[in-house]
Amino acid sequence: MIFNIDTAKKTAELLLQINAIKLNPKNPFTWASGWKSPIYCDNRITLSFPPIRNYIREEFSKHIEKEFGKPDVIAGVATGAIGIGMLVAEYMGLPFVYVRPEPKKHGRQNQVEGFLQKGQNVVVVEDLISTGNSSLMAVEALKAAGANVKGMVAIFTYGFDVSVENFKKANVTLHTLGNYETLLDLAVSKKYITEEELDTLKDWSKSPSTWGQ
């Protein structure tokens, strides 16, 4: 669920402007999962643009407090959301931790890095939601460490049915600054893509795991 349509439009415009989101239906990208995709999203690029990263941290901070109340800790999901998560924590004056994809193989074998006490309220910051699997693994790691996870916020979601179902099953509330539907509407109106390319992008989102095969 997006926070609101105005934020979603503004986020889409900013991500397109700096090529954090690339749309290329004629020459699809290949994701790490092997999926073929006419869109590629790398929100880490936002960190290189101070006005944009400031916009994101301030929108996150405002909406986190509104939707979840002020948490005790902000948690970023490694590696993509460590940077923006830290900025949000700093802006809100809160402690910060981050969650590895899996525990370290040496030392204290931590999966959650930073100081976290049992029972603390945590909001998780993520950069991008595709299937939601890796994001929800981070939530499970935080719960295993004794955190009370209030919910998750992300910069952008593709809005796949599988991700909606995964978050529903896990009983985790997700709010995002931007989403795929709003992005496509803006991309057409701003002439980033044609109407024909829009049809291709819509078809992909219906069955992203098999598209292009």
UniProtKB/TrEMBL annotation:
Gene3D superfamilies: 3.40.50.2020. Its cofactor is Mg(2+). Orotate binds at S130. Keywords: Glycosyltransferase, Magnesium, Pyrimidine biosynthesis, Transferase. It holds the Pfam family Pribosyltran. Its EC number is 2.4.2.10. 5-phospho-alpha-D-ribose 1-diphosphate binds at R100, K104, H106, E126, D127, L128, I129, S130, T131, G132, N133, S134. Pathway: Pyrimidine metabolism; UMP biosynthesis via de novo pathway; UMP from orotate: step 1/2. Homodimer. PANTHER family: OROTATE PHOSPHORIBOSYLTRANSFERASE (PTHR19278), URIDINE 5'-MONOPHOSPHATE SYNTHASE (PTHR19278:SF9). This is Orotate phosphoribosyltransferase. The gene is pyrE.
